[in-house]
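Tip: read the tokens left to right.
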């Protein structure tokens, strides 16, 4: 039966279920199925985000917080709204301009990373 489950999961392209179904513990059949599907979906979402991050070829973000001290944000925008990509929801463009080393690329990278994690 173990081989048959693996075979069916492979045909249905349920990779996480195929490899881990024997590890799931549940008190009922319905709970078992629910846990299997939840884990499969979570695994697919993680793979999707990793693939999008790889395809985006964004520059490496240093992990340090962005310095907003010299950034002038126009009326109608907020720091959080900019980072969350609210302008994309409204289908608007955003242009960053300034001198070399001002953080334009870094800010655009942060916005891109947030968009990938938020929207997939």
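Filled-in amino acids:
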């Amino acid at each position: 039966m173990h081989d048959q489950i693996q075979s069916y999961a492979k045909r249905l392209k349920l990779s996480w279920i195929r490899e881990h179904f024997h590890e799931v513990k549940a008190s009922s059949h319905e709970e078992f199925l629910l846990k299997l599907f939840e884990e499969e979906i979570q695994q697919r979402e993680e793979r999707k985000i990793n693939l999008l991050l790889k395809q985006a070829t964004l520059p490496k973000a240093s992990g340090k917080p962005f310095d907003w001290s010299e950034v002038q944000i126009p009326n109608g925008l907020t720091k959080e709204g900019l980072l969350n990509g609210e302008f994309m929801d409204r289908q608007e463009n955003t242009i960053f301009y300034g001198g070399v080393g001002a953080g334009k690329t870094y800010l655009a990278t942060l916005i891109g990373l947030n968009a990938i994690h938020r929207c997939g």
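Residues 16 and 39 are 7 Å apart (CA to CA). Residues 58-120 form one domain.
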